[in-house]
Design goal:
Largest interface: A-B, 22 and 26 residues
Number of helices of chain B: 0
Number of strands of chain B: 11
Shape of chain A: globular
Strand content of chain B: over 45%
Structural class of chain A: mainly beta
Distance between the termini of chain B: 34 Å
Helix content of chain A: under 10%
Helix content of chain B: under 10%
Oligomer: heterodimer
Order of helices and strands of chain B: EEEEEEEEEEE
Structural class of chain B: mainly beta
């Protein structure tokens, strides 16, 4: 069965600093991988997804993620944090043929002025 | 136009009551989902409907009964509410035949059981 582990339930960075949110997945078949963002009191919004092809995926709001099969990772990065990036971030996995997404436990990103 | 809408946004009720949450989507998707997000923000799927047919039921207590009157609507009825049912419930939609099945989420319904 597929699963997702997000390392670090809380990450804090300074405004302008690099953002790195870690996600490792477990899947016996090639996965589809997603990052979602949840702003306070709102629903989840898709940031980016990896399906096939290029392993470096660009998303909205300047975020990108790299799929590394050898490391079973899909870490999310942004070169320069902005105050508006403060939110909860979820990594999710889906395997071909499965109807459901399996989510990691989430990482809360705090941006310090 | 809101793609996935839920009503109500907030629901406060007493233990033992019965309540419903409604979800509507205008994306033309054929699959709809209910997720529960607990106080630690953990998201877990509860149900999935495809073309009004139940396809996923993740061992949810039978006090929870989803109903899909048509492809654009998926409602969640909860009987005999318990304290542990307090959570945020999210509706989501997607395309079962879609290659990647990314899902689109509603704004959530915060249920508080007193």
């Amino acid at each position: 069965a597929q699963s997702v582990t997000q390392l670090g339930s809380h990450v804090s960075v300074s405004e302008g600093a690099l953002v790195l949110l870690r996600c490792n997945y477990s899947s016996s078949v090639p996965p589809y991988l997603f990052w979602y963002v949840q702003y306070p009191n709102q629903g989840l919004q898709l940031l980016l997804k990896y399906t096939t092809g290029a392993t470096l995926v660009k998303g909205i709001n300047g975020f990108e993620a790299e799929f590394k099969k050898s490391e079973t990772s899909f870490h999310l990065t942004k070169p320069s944090a902005h105050m508006s990036d403060a939110a909860e971030y979820f990594c999710a996995v889906r395997v071909q043929g499965a109807q459901k997404l399996v989510f990691g436990q989430g990482t809360r990103l705090t941006i310090n002025p | 136009d809101t793609a996935v809408s839920q009503t109500p946004k907030y629901l406060v009720t007493q233990m033992g009551n019965d309540k419903s949450i409604k979800c509507e989507q205008n994306l033309g998707h054929d699959t709809m989902y209910w997720y529960k997000q607990d106080s630690k923000k953990f998201l877990k799927i509860m149900f999935s409907y495809n073309n009004k047919e139940l396809i996923i039921n993740e061992t949810v207590p039978n006090r929870f009964s989803p109903k899909s009157p048509d492809k654009a609507h998926l409602n969640l009825h909860i009987n005999s509410l318990e304290l542990g049912d307090s959570a945020v419930y999210f509706c989501a939609t997607g395309l079962a035949g879609g290659r990647y099945n990314e899902q689109f989420f509603g704004p959530g319904t915060r249920l508080t059981v007193l």
